[in-house]
Amino acid sequence: MDDLTLIGRVAPFRDASAYAASSGALNLSQGLPEPLFDNAMNAALARQVRSGWQYADPRGEMILRESIAAHSAGYAPDSEVLVTSGCTEALYLALYAASTQYGSRVAFFEPFYPYYPGMATLLGLEFVALPLSVGASIGPDWAMFERQLRAGVRILLLNTPHNPTGWCMSADDWQHLVALAKNHDFMVIVDEAYRHYQYDTDAPAQYPHQQIPMMVAGSASKLLSMTGVRIGWLCAQATFMERAYAHHLYLSYCQPTPIQAAVAVLLDELTVGRLDSLREHYKHKRDRLAGALMAAGLDIRLPAGGHYIMADYSRQAPSLSPVEFSQHLAMRCGVMPLPATPFYLGQCPTYVRFSFSVAKPIVDQACARLEDF
Amino acid sequence: MDDLTLIGRVAPFRDASAYAASSGALNLSQGLPEPLFDNAMNAALARQVRSGWQYADPRGEMILRESIAAHSAGYAPDSEVLVTSGCTEALYLALYAASTQYGSRVAFFEPFYPYYPGMATLLGLEFVALPLSVGASIGPDWAMFERQLRAGVRILLLNTPHNPTGWCMSADDWQHLVALAKNHDFMVIVDEAYRHYQYDTDAPAQYPHQQIPMMVAGSASKLLSMTGVRIGWLCAQATFMERAYAHHLYLSYCQPTPIQAAVAVLLDELTVGRLDSLREHYKHKRDRLAGALMAAGLDIRLPAGGHYIMADYSRQAPSLSPVEFSQHLAMRCGVMPLPATPFYLGQCPTYVRFSFSVAKPIVDQACARLEDF
């Protein structure tokens, strides 16, 4: 994969937003999350700048590692938590660390977060994309994954809640994985960028990280509606963490000291009650958007989690490509989704992705337009 | 190089500071730069947080790229400047980008910034360390470098002003490199973390980047005395830049939006007059420390640039290792240098490194102790 391909795979995000801006359509192609925590952030930062601007602890300031550990039960802040430059660096480090012990073959489910293939390639890893059904019955085919384990795959990069489908690992799915781990030696990297955004699911509050070798990557980007704050984290048992930490020293090294302290304050303020209310807010937007998409004649599955709804437009415009349909919708309806193209390696089905991680008035306005479409 | 080696190579920095703290010695083992720009930074940041905390342009906010370009004459902010997570990520990306075109063999001068071997290893590159004399006559042996070019090296990672020796590429050195570039196809990566800290040198204000393929990595860490602000940059012609940018998308992605805007304000305030006065401040500290080290019977060469003085202690304690001598000096004299061990691949000579990038009262106090030693 050369540099143009690496850039090209993630360019549709930028292109869709540019098309939305130039066409005047409401931009539902990406996350522009709300409610914003900016006022709380700015107030916390104004206090935390007192700590000065010299090197932070490259593992992360302890006050932030403790806040992260409190949100990721079961990990020790002193040895099992690393602060990274967003979830992106955390995933890169996790893949590196996993590959030093589990080799070069990694699997993830397709559709997939578009950064996975490029990350694997840059780290010299081979990857296989396993189809995740996005039809009536959604979920991994664990028998197919076991065949891949027999064929040499030893790393599973697992995104739950899943971008773009909103699927979430269920208790049953986790049991399948635990059972597989009894007969196969593999590592699971959990990408939990959308953790806490689960609406209708029996997913367990805690992963079975005592039963499966596991690294967990998350970030403040979605949780605090601050995609540009660049505070991510990796949680893992100390033996794996040391490999990630070793590489981290030679990459971003540390995140800005006062930013870490301010994010710690905000994470500590995210109580169960506030998380419930945040989840309720997103669930409401999800339900509103889902109804409007169905009214517009698009086929959807209500996502159990995450920030997006995948919609099949084949009944409306079977001959259009996802890019063409997205632009068609922007021009004719005034709502811009993201073509699902970057989520697939090969031919993309007739899918586009709608984000409900936008301000509620925008969701309402987009829904009104979709209902009239 | 396994993860323990990667961590171990840079651990002496942490160990020396810890020893200084536990022994009560003045810590001259690392940069604790001053004058601080914290007040200006905090004031600028308080205004710039208005821009909010969503994703920044992954190439860097244009306002910051323009400020960087103004300090790095000859580069276009729209296509030849990339904002990174400190100079560390910039160097990692530069090595990656260079290797995609120039292959896997890189050379740097020894002693070297201790992160170079690990970075090369993590990127799957081979490296060769070419001795830089630190005795009476300092500088690269360009004939030796040409032999390496003939043997297949095609990337030179060049740190000027140099850490730890303070050597700076002279006009003559650059002419040697330009002459070599006429007969050999190689790329130079310039690590200019200490740019603007040149005291006695005929080094040209601008590198010959029209005559040699070149990428230039710098940062705000030393220039603005904010090692923890994590704003670095890479400047290069667009064709090389695209490779670095492609990898950057999958690593740190972007730096926090308001931090970028605030650092741009500070860089714009760094006028020629203020840089002159900053340089004069450091030169004064350099001269004060150099005199005291000589008074203490250590052999030094006055560094032409940078923040450090290498000192040979062989006349004082020929049988001690660099670590032993550092601890000896901390205990007996109350001044903690950095053992030069991490700057060498193999056997380290009888050298320790003293930083004059510390507050002036600390330099004065350390000098008084050294003069009495």
Topology, element by element:
Two copies of one chain form a homodimer.
Chain A lengths: L2 H21 L2 E2 L10 H11 L13 H10 L9 E4 L1 H17 L2 E6 L5 H7 L3 E6 L10 H9 L4 E5 L11 H13 L3 E5 L22 E6 H4 L8 E5 L1 H12 L7 H13 L2 H24 L3 E2 L7 E5 L9 H12 L1 E2 L1 E2 L11 E5 L4 H13 L1
Can you walk through the features of this model?
The structure is a homodimer of 373-residue chains. With 373 residues, chain A is α/β, with parallel strands linked by helices. Chain A folds into two domains: 3-30 and 272-372, Aspartate Aminotransferase, domain 1, CATH 3.90.1150; 38-269, Type I PLP-dependent aspartate aminotransferase-like (Major domain) (Aspartate Aminotransferase, domain 2), CATH 3.40.640.10. Chain A has 13 helices and 13 strands. In chain A, the strands form three sheets. The first copy, chain A, has a seven-stranded mixed β-sheet with strand order 2-8-7-6-5-3-4, sandwiched between helices. In chain A, a hairpin with a 7-residue loop joins β9 and β10. Chain A is globular and about 55 Å long. Chains A and B meet through α1, α2, α4, α5 and α9 of A and α1, α2, α4, α5 and α9 of B.
Short characterization:
Helices cover 45% and strands 15% of the residues of chain A. Chain A is an alpha/beta fold and 373 residues long. Chain A folds into 2 domains: 129 residues, Aspartate Aminotransferase, domain 1 (Alpha-Beta Complex), CATH 3.90.1150.10; 232 residues, Aspartate Aminotransferase, domain 2, CATH 3.40.640.10.
